[in-house]
Amino acid sequence: MKKTVIRAGADYGRCLPEEKLEQKMRETVEPFLKEICRSGRMAEMEPVSGGYAPDSPAGLYYELYPQENAKGTIVISFGFTESCLKYHELIWYFYREGYQAAVIDHRRHGKSLREVEDPSLVHVDRFSRYVKELHKFVQELVVPMAQGGPLFLFAHSMGGCVGAIYLEQYPKDFDRAILNAPMLGLNLGGCPPWAARILCDMKIAAGKGKERLFTQAPFDPQEPFEGCAAGSLARHLYYLAQRREDAAYQTSSATYFWGREAINAGKFAIQPSSAGRVRTPVLLFQAELDTLVSPKAQEIFLSRIPDGRLAVAEGARHEIYRSQNGILEPYLEELFGFYGEHQTKETDAAK
């Protein structure tokens, strides 16, 4: 397994200046993305009854950012409690580098339909729903936009677990994949996974599967920077302000159903019989200061796939893509270098 260490360096100005982040996002990035965005709703796979959609109709909300003569199309599979909105800065960098982007609000996230009335709760009864719906999104909406060009995956945290299982079940869809701090094993604070699983099973059996996990809390409009997953104060404050304005972005905790499914999904993804089916070249980013997911599970997964490499971001918290610029710039350089290798190999093969 090839390993690279990404070390923090100077801020060379390739990313938005942190001291002016809010201004640049509101005056430049958001207006531009809004102009080119094609948004809509995709029907769910196996829809459930009794859903709630905060200020929006049913279905799964998505955003497409097409670009003529794109180098490729990057599909984003985001993390637990996240949304399309949270990725606008990263999409800006993708677009500026010459890539199209596509992102969908996973069920019970963002503007997509909810199954529980409390907008702060994330609930799913089967993790496989995430995978099947991402595949439907890719096949029905992303492939036509790509027009035969290369398809790349960027999958973070929970979305990284979704992405890993996707690569196992649909090994021909993506040309390259980045798993960013993927949730292949949860950091349970010393609690064995089997014990956490039994607790979730007991709550579900008692009819409390849609209730909030006792370890988690409702949305905090004053969420402190010290305990958050972002390494950049400016990026933390910018998205937090947006979350305060719209209940659709205030997901913050899981149900017992989600907890059980998350434990099961990570275990399934790293099994030899599952991981061995991956055929896509994978770059897995690991955050040195990550307190949310298991680095050991990530490394086990990499050891079991045919073409995987590891990049460790020194000094980075879980959300590496929202680090301070000194980490974010070399991280993006590594990211685009990995995607660019596909074009280099395609060009060499054509000679």
Tell me the strand percentage band.
15-25%
* Strand runs, count: 11
Number of domains: 1
Radius of gyration: 19 Å
- Which architecture per CATH? 3-Layer(aba) Sandwich
- Biggest beta-sheet profile: 9 strands, mixed
Q: So what's the overall shape?
A: globular
CATH topology category name: Rossmann fold
| Class computed from helices, strands and strand pairing | alpha/beta
Low-confidence stretches: 49-56
Put simply, the count of helices is: 10
What does the model show?
This protein has 351 residues and is an alpha/beta fold. It has a single domain (2-350), classed as 3-Layer(aba) Sandwich (Rossmann fold). The chain contains ten helices and eleven strands. It is globular. It starts with a strand and ends with a helix.
Q: What's the layout of helices and strands?
A:
Elements: E1 2-6, H1 21-36, E2 38-42, E3 60-65, E4 72-77, H2 88-96, E5 99-104, E6 121-122, H3 128-146, E7 151-156, H4 158-169, E8 176-180, H5 193-205, H6 233-245, E9 253-254, H7 256-269, H8 272-275, E10 282-287, H9 295-303, E11 308-313, H10 325-350
Parallel strand pairs: 1-11, 4-5, 4-7, 6-9, 7-8, 8-10, 10-11
Antiparallel strand pairs: 2-3, 3-5
Helix pairs in contact: 3-4, 4-7, 5-7
Short description:
The protein is globular, with a radius of gyration of 19 Å.
